[in-house]
Write a structure and sequence with these properties.
The chain has 405 residues and is mostly helical. The protein has two domains: 102-264, no CATH class; 272-405, no CATH class. Helices cover 77% and strands 0% of the residues. The chain contains 19 helices and no strands. It has helices spanning 3-19, 22-38, 42-49, 53-67, 75-84, 87-96, 103-130, 132-138, 153-172, 177-197, 200-218, 224-244, 246-262, 272-289, 300-311, 325-333, 335-354, 357-372, 379-404. The protein starts with a helix and ends with a helix.
Length: 405
Amino acid sequence: MPTHLLQFLGCVSILLGLYVSRAMISIGMMTLLGAALLNLELEKNWKSFLKVNYLLLITFYFLLLSISFFWSDDKHYFVSRLQTILPFLILPFAFHSFKNWKENWFQYVMLVFVFLNLIGNTYSLINYFSHKEMYDLGYSFSKVIPTPFKNDHIRYSIAVLLSIIFCIEIYRHQKNNLLKIALLLIVFYDILFLHILSAKTGLLAFYLVAFIFIFKLITIKKYRVIGLGSLLSIILLPFLMYQFSSTFNAKLHYVKYSFEQMKNANKESNISDEGRLISYDYALQSIKQHPFMGVGYGDIFHEMEWHYQQDFKGKNVNVLLPHNQFLVLGLAIGILGIIYLLILQLFLFIKSYNNGFLVSIIWFIFFFAMMIEPLYETQYGTCLFLFMTLFLIKREETIVSKIRD
């Protein structure tokens, strides 16, 4: 089997795994790694890989946290954490080894993702409308409808936003009018779904990206009228959804309630937004106590659990990891870990910026998400971040290389 076909199947397997079975994610990664190792230019690819700064920095994320094995007490939890971030070790070299891909192959992978997301949205909405009253009531207590990604609604909302962006990107380069209409309908469907799901991270990221995109349109004279029309639409959208979506309405009221609760002196860890702030506070306390080596990647949960037990003795509370990826790394390996992650993000930003608007937007989405979520601490978050970032950078490099040739 040709290497590039094996790589294509690996990509499809990873995407299917996000929606169907996490085992398929692992199979897809192993397929990509196998394709890289079986490549006739393995030695050449390895030597060139060692010269690519941003790829080495991504790989080093896994190696850096691996070192904390020596001061982690809970080895079992350490191994489970390491399995979650294994893609940092595998995917950089696997994607670097992509050769001879045609531009339309990248589009096929993007279309597979859009199609899977379409099915995922439909699955969630069928569940929602089958028990609408129950789920509408649940949203008043920050409960959400079932989603793919094993009900990881936060990462799934990011995937829906990526689907919207992919549809727009494919639309820009598409000549088939029927497909263009289908893509626009999918964008509308995804936006509607995002508001029904009402995951705050996904919605906030959507509006931030929308305003960035609209600003870009307005600055181009040819698209200024479209940009102004889009600006009006995006301003009116939340008001319309407030009137017509029970879940969006309930979520806004819950957010208002959670902010009101933060004003009182009592700590409430089980209230979504206040729970985030509490997790930040505990992580910062721990980093101050262990500034140079952290507590070890295997002990991050136990460290947070200890803080919760001190403040909420005898209470049934949901122990959270710090809802910020920088704080997770600081908790695990100290301040140097935070500095390292900042450097990694800087290199990724420069690489993304040099590869065009699409990759820059994807970088922004993930950077925003990691500021308010422990993005890399689930297989779905790690896989989404690495796969989409590396895949799209490779796509842009392929397009540029084709133009130069």
